[in-house]
């Protein structure tokens, strides 16, 4: 064990750390905050491999890490968070891993939405974005029941992208427009708004910050439509379960500086250089 991790294991250190972090976020919250943040939670398997534990433990640690960050973000009143929990490509992973992620997401969504838990605490509406026909029916039914519990929550939103890719979303949007048009329900010309209104994310604001962990610098078919000219894309060089509130703070700070100075450059952030 390194000296740093030995010191940081002390409860007093952790307490002090948390107090400092809370203070920093309170200061940050006095300025303008982003309305929508997206997360690509990458690196769970490598995290597990390095620790010589099962892959599913890596994903479980990933969920715990997400909970800590959501806690910070909803506390300072960020109204919308979108996370990439499972892409359509992920169905090609070994069956036992696919099953483990399905079970984890089901368990976690039920946990988030149960009475008095996370969604109630922050008045968060939990939504699933993805092709639900690809999700095993029992998992989908359990998630749907849980999600329905939060439907009246209005303060914030948690979008969980599950059986999702951005290109599939756009294709499905086009498909439903064509269907409506054939049924005579749709007469006006197809515009950007038409496509948006048929997407999973309809009505959501554009993404202000897109964060990807694990050092990989690519978008992996996530929120391609919802990101725009003003989106800050942040790549952090650590596995998702190790991504901390301090790292998140630095990215939010960068965003507020760019926002307040209206600089439309430097919209790619990387902690590797
Ligand atoms: C990517 O890391 C992570 C996933 C495919 C799964 C992430 C899912 C969770 C953390 C659960 C979230 C649950 C809810 C309810 C939001 P990877 O497996 O690709 O890791 P690697 O890059 O090291 O291979």
TrEMBL record:
Superkingdom of this protein's organism: Eukaryota
Cross-referenced InterPro entries: UPP_synth-like, UPP_synth-like_CS, UPP_synth-like_sf
Class of enzymatic activity (EC top level): transferase
Keywords per UniProt: Magnesium, Transferase
Cited PROSITE patterns: UPP_SYNTHASE (PS01066)
Family: Belongs to the UPP synthase family.
Listed name of the protein: Alkyl transferase
Organism for this UniProt entry: Tortispora caseinolytica NRRL Y-17796
Phylogenetic placement of the source organism: Eukaryota, Fungi, Dikarya, Ascomycota, Saccharomycotina
């Amino acid at each position: 064990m390194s000296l740093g991790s030995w010191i940081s294991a002390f409860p007093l250190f952790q307490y002090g750390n948390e107090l400092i972090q809370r203070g920093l976020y309170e200061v940050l919250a006095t300025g303008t905050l982003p309305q929508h943040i997206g997360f690509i939670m990458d690196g769970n398997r490598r995290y597990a491999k390095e620790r010589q534990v099962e892959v599913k433990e890596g994903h479980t640690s990933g969920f715990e890490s997400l909970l800590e960050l959501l806690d910070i973000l909803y506390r300072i009143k960020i109204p919308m968070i979108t996370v990439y929990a499972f892409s359509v490509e992920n169905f090609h992973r070994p069956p036992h891993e696919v099953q483990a992620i399905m079970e984890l997401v089901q368990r976690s969504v039920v946990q988030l939405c149960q009475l008095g838990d996370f969604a109630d605490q922050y008045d968060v509406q939990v939504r699933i974005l993805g092709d639900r026909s690809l999700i095993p029916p029992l998992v989908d039914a359990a998630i749907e029941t849980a999600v329905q519990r939060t439907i009246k929550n209005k303060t914030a939103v948690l979008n969980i992208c599950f059986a999702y890719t951005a290109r599939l979303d756009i294709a499905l949007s086009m498909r439903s427009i064509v269907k409506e048009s054939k049924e005579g329900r749709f007469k006006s010309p197809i515009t950007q708004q038409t496509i948006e209104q048929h997407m999973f994310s309809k009505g959501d604001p554009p993404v202000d910050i897109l964060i990807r962990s694990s050092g990989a610098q690519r978008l992996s078919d996530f929120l391609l439509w919802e990101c725009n000219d003003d989106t800050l894309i942040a790549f952090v060089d650590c596995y998702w379960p190790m991504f901390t509130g301090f790292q998140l703070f630095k990215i939010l700070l960068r965003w507020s500086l760019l926002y307040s100075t209206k600089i439309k450059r430097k919209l790619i952030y990387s902690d590797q250089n």
